[in-house]
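Annotated sample (chain length 95).
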Amino acid sequence: MCDCYHHKCECCANEIPMHIADFNYPRSDFKVWCKDHIDNAEAGAIVFTISEYDASDMEYFSIDSNWQCAIFGPEVSDFSCNCPNISSETDTYVK
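Output written by the structure step:
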C-alpha cells in the first residue's frame, strides 16, 4: 500500500496531491511547492509539469492542464515512486 494525501505548499495554503510508495518515508521528509512558488523550491527539487492531461484530475483534484509542482525529498521521481498523486502524465526536471 501507499501513502496518498494532500501536502501543503511550503509557501501558501495550496495543497498538492502526494503519493509516497509503500510508506517508505514519513511525510515530514518531503517539501512541496505549488506552481506559484516553484521559484522558491530548494535546489535539487524535482519539478513536475503535465505533459498529457487526464480529465479525471480536474474532477478529483481541481487540477488543470497547466498544473505544476516541485517536490524535494527522498526517491522523488515518476509514478512508481514518490511523486504527485495524479493521473496525468508528467515531464520532470531537476531545479
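Annotation: The helical segments are 56-61.
Annotation: Residues 41 and 85 are 19 Å apart (CA to CA).
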